[in-house]
Write a structure and sequence with these properties.
homotetramer; seven-stranded mixed beta sheet; three-stranded antiparallel beta sheet; 14 helices; 40% helix; globular
């Protein structure tokens, strides 16, 4: 007998669970796209995205997904033939690098071991080696969604500074934005790419690119793809030029509402809530790891994303568990993505097959009944399938919630949720 | 710090959590109310309500809440001065009796101890005592929402039959319909009152009254309140007469969708799912009862509602816990309602104050991540507040889910949920 | 070929067209019904209903439709056997009187000719005749939806005052509330009944009863139907007692939003808009009346409702036209209701069969493209069906809009519509 | 006094009015993006888009707007340096050509006089001149949204065939798809670009590119922008590769519903409805042209788009009228876009300033009350502003509706609209 008939529960690392408020805000008639409230709404969104990212520069919204944001940033910053130093922590860091290669950019890659951040010393060394300053930009993910690893952006920034290298810093914050703090100005991030469907709690469809002055002018007046070209978007004649054509009306309604929610809660509280709930996941997995083979893929807490956790299993168990949760309990866990180690010769070895890993998304619109429900359903699945696991995971998770709620560093705001 | 910012989670015994499908079905333009699809929709709803209740008689929908349904049934079955034998298992059984008194009906009440069903032998005795057959009808709740107690309808029916008494049987299925099976024809239920906001997963606003032939004609042509009078509703000239005026258009859209969901899953599976999830709640509370004062209010499993569970606590703990869950975790538990014992002289003594009890609703659109999330959040609250409780509650609940899902007596249907 | 595939357009006298904002407000999760924002929302609604009606007394909301509101007012004001003087302008005035009779109230009726208001002199005479002051209350519609006639409430009030009669004044404002101004205090209205699905732009499901001090206490402590009894609703212990049980959560969300819209536009502007748009309808029908048999049923402008217009046709044409509009153009007109003249002997003669009349609703959420679209579609139907009609109706309607918009007595507010 | 408080009425040439069904379909929880129903939904959409376009080739959906579709088609068909022969009928034909230039494609343009289609003889001549077959592709709009002119695709196809030139034919059907029939296979269209927010009745956010075999392989294995590259999208490994990353989940839900509506009505009936309603607009404007300066910009009916009509006015009147309609009546008309004539030296002269033109969108979800309401509101605005115009426009439009509905060539389907 399946018990799945209730709310389908999505616990994947994006798209994340959509607040009722956001869906409601999107359920409205088509607006005028040349004048009126859509214009004000858009400008307020751009301002709030910058505010959330600590960016004193400019903000762009592309109709597209995260990959669109990647391409937009690359096309406007790097000409074919110019060199990008790409940091790789998993499938997404590597994917961005691959996109650059396809665009004719010359790519040099530093591969981290999956589950570990990129060692800043390696970045510093690579930049020092580039005495001719041929490297025009460094790209990195903040958190890699596939391995659930987080890089230390401040340390990477420091490495660039220490190397006294003029490379631009391009950051993929797709997985982390709205979950993990970022301060573009303080970190000297020149271009920051994100998307609306994770921490920003909006259905997929918008890529967001936040830029500083250096990135804005990186390619001067060089011709480039009109769709990605950010120059007319930043200095539009008619309003639709901000979007190279018809604006994404309903996504703008949704994103406006999501940002309202975020600022009503307060960005600091949002980030603290993500950290607390991530701790709750880790407490559970640590308890499960007491017997059998489950464990958090990223060993050290400070290297873990607060938005997604990858859980190692015996090969095959991850898939069985995901199937059980979906079929019997109405809950969808994130698929495992194969993680490879790449040696100095560029040879790839699979370190963790996709079938030996699953991921729990814990980003965005999330509170204890939702997250504890996820963990408890996994626990039920482990029991139903006879997958060996340590005891006490749920009590540990509940204790983590109790401790976090009790710590009360920040006063609760009085706002409407739903 | 509050962690409440996610989906507000409602774990009260109605209104229950609304499926997205139901809300979506209600989000539509106003329809023609004299002809067209609304008429067909309504007729199909009435047929499906009867099907779900095993009623070969007629179905009525009143714009109103459960209390409206109570009054509709009373007004059409009993004239002022006629006698009702009312069974009382808590606030709702007693409330219905009180309504009858206010309507001028003569009421004789049998009070059960809160947390226990009414002893069928007492019903039989009372009916046997009524040699003049002055008792025109017997009223009872199926499950009482305040005490979470369930009566054994078959045993009550048998008592009436054994007493060879012609009284009509009126049943309040507000808390149980769609959760616990009922077969009106087999049980000889003459009038069955329910509402749309619990097992039927629709926002409050509709009272449902299902009747058999005897109830339909109980008062013959006697005049009565036009709004409650079911005669024109059962034989309408123009369609709106089914509702004594403008029909509840959007609630009909919603209820149609909810019934579609229920029949897509299959009523047997729906009832089995409720029983399984109730077992999961009881497993958790039983574990908590290992230390401290928490325990299921209704002692014996066969006396418990599968739709709601009342949990006894030390006086005051229930309120502290409810507050914590709402404020810190975004979850609303059901309030405790004071339960009284009434002696043979009619003197009431509070047996369980409202502050020493809380209720967990587990009715309607519910699956493991939702229910386990509820239980785990309560567990976190107990820990945060230092309320003594036994260990292992969540593991027990997860095991109960694992066992129920694994039992697989019924093949899972392949339908769309959300 | 049908051209109907677009928005279904409802031009009936209620339920009226629902604003997107209202439907959106109703599309949300089930709330806590004992505490929290639902309580505040409800209290604010009650206050705003009173404000809109100029009532310094109290406001009640019943889950029900307009007929429920009728019964609630009668049950709380009049005991069986007491006398009501009922004014009849059509099916609804008469319907309310019929309900009183069924409730055991002694009813004396003054019948107006359909299409005419009740002559205040007749009311005055009837009250003067009642030297014993046996008449406890006078009931009247403000506007009768079936005949689209409006009574002059101030003149009726003056008649009661001139007769120096203590009868309570009960008014049915179901068709007029939110369209036509009413000032309960100034008019000495003791109980005012309305519903949410017309000028209040909310799906059907709520009856509203606004009362003054005299009505509140009219029956003292006399027992009455618990569902209608307004005493516990006005002095609730727990919040749900305001609704005699579970509150109509989603309708409250919707009505709150509708009232927000109404106050954002401004009640004066709302009323002026209705008057202007009604004038636009009349201009069109007057032009059609230049040839053939179409004409506004109510002859004199000051006797016409601003919320609905009944249009006389040759017998049968009304039905053909309604069918054509629905089938070919996706537009639903209001059905005609047979209107009868009742002579002094109580003998009824059909004055206007339902098939010789249709009605255009022009209440609530309505602006020129909607209303002119209605009129132009009727015009197309007349042409398609070869129903004789005068020329220039649409130009006349457009001119009426041009003139009204141009008159600009009131400055336009800057608010969000949709 | 403004009368605008009702449904905001959008009469612009896209985004078009959204059906309730479409918005409702989009109001749902986030789905699994790797497996399950989203995959089937997407495949069914792709098949139905091809079916609607008469394409036996392949279909692609890009997250983007119409401009994104333009770029996708160009990038996959033409390498930098290759030659495109671009036909220009207004801002959009010219815009596509400009995009090609920016992408490094060599562009040769044939400029039509605004308001006229491109003479096929000029296309034939240009292709004959290209004896070396340097022209790799011909691009044209089907209908240009700015001038509301339609090209005769069959004649253009014939011109290419007559010239026996191997150029690929690229067509922009953004304004026409779902309104005007197209048969890609029969017309030999190699790539057809459209978007979801006009005839497809879905909020903006999806570009659609339908291609045949020759276009699919036009650039062989040449590297290109990964986001636009259609090769991995046509042969995806994991499902998200169809969208180069996260799929546009909610837009897919919406588009699926819109296509359901379109096929329920029947594509032939949809196209016939658009033609009939366009005729209704033209009848009104022709009547207005009886006095003053209003007239349809495109002189000959066979050159007019059935989805949008541009109306010439005295300079300045267009803007005054648009302002009045928006402010006083809640209706938004399409802005005028300046139309230029370009001589053989490439010198542009403004033929129609934007301020001397407005546009009426009549595409998608549209029926008589909506369209006649638009025309009647314009008529009211002309009167209010004292803009000279001929009489009888609305009667003429109503007659056109009466005639079209009466012609009844196609039997009406019995389906749900809203």
């Amino acid at each position: 007998m399946t018990l799945a008939f209730g709310r389908d529960h999505l616990a994947i690392p994006g798209p994340s669970i959509l607040p009722s408020r956001v869906l409601r805000a999107m359920h409205r008639p088509a607006p005028n796209i040349y004048a009126g409230s859509l214009v004000d709404t858009t400008l307020s969104i751009l301002a709030d995205l910058n505010r959330l990212a600590g960016n004193s520069g400019q903000a762009l919204i592309y109709i597209g997904n995260g990959h669109a944001g990647w391409e937009a940033a690359l096309v406007n910053v790097l000409a074919p033939g110019e060199r990008l130093l790409a940091l790789d922590n998993g499938r997404f860091g590597r994917g961005w690098a691959g996109m650059a290669t396809a665009l004719g950019i010359e790519v040099q890659t530093l591969h981290a071991t999956p589950g570990e951040p990129l060692d800043p010393a390696r970045l510093e060394a690579a930049l020092r080696d580039d005495t001719a300053h041929r490297i025009r930009a460094v790209s990195t993910v903040h958190s890699d969604t596939s391995s659930a690893t987080t890089n230390d952006l401040a340390a990477l920034r420091a490495a660039i500074d220490t190397a006294a290298h003029p490379a631009l810093l391009l950051v993929d914050g797709i997985c982390s934005f709205g979950c993990e703090p970022v301060d573009m100005d303080a970190l000297g991030i020149d271009a920051y790419v994100t998307a609306c469907q994770k921490g920003l709690m909006t259905p997929p469809g918008l890529a967001i690119v936040l830029i500083g002055e250096r990135a804005a002018n990186a390619r001067g007046d060089a011709p480039r793809s009109p769709y990605w070209d950010w120059r007319p978007r930043l200095a539009p004649g008619m309003f639709p030029e901000r979007f190279c054509g018809t604006p994404p009306t309903h996504h703008l309604f949704g994103l406006r509402e999501a940002l309202d929610m975020l600022f009503e809660e307060g960005p600091d509280r949002v980030m603290a809530r993500h950290r607390a709930l991530a701790g709750c996941v880790w407490a559970a997995v640590d308890a499960w790891s007491g017997a059998g083979e489950l464990r958090v893929l990223v060993e050290r807490r400070e290297h873990r994303s607060v938005a997604v956790t990858a859980v190692r299993t015996r090969d095959g168990d991850a898939e069985r568990l995901r199937d059980w949760c979906e079929r019997e309990a109405g809950m969808t866990l994130g698929i495992g993505m194969a993680l490879e180690r790449i040696d100095r010769h560029g040879t790839a070895t699979v370190l963790v097959p996709g079938s030996a890993q699953f991921r729990i998304g814990h980003m965005g619109h999330l509170n204890p009944p939702m997250l504890l429900g996820t963990l408890a359903t996994i626990d039920a699945g482990l029991k139903a399938l006879g997958i060996a696991h340590g005891d006490g995971a749920l009590a540990a998770a509940a204790s983590a919630v109790a401790d976090a709620a009790g710590s009360a560093a920040v006063t609760a705001p009085n706002v409407t949720r739903d």
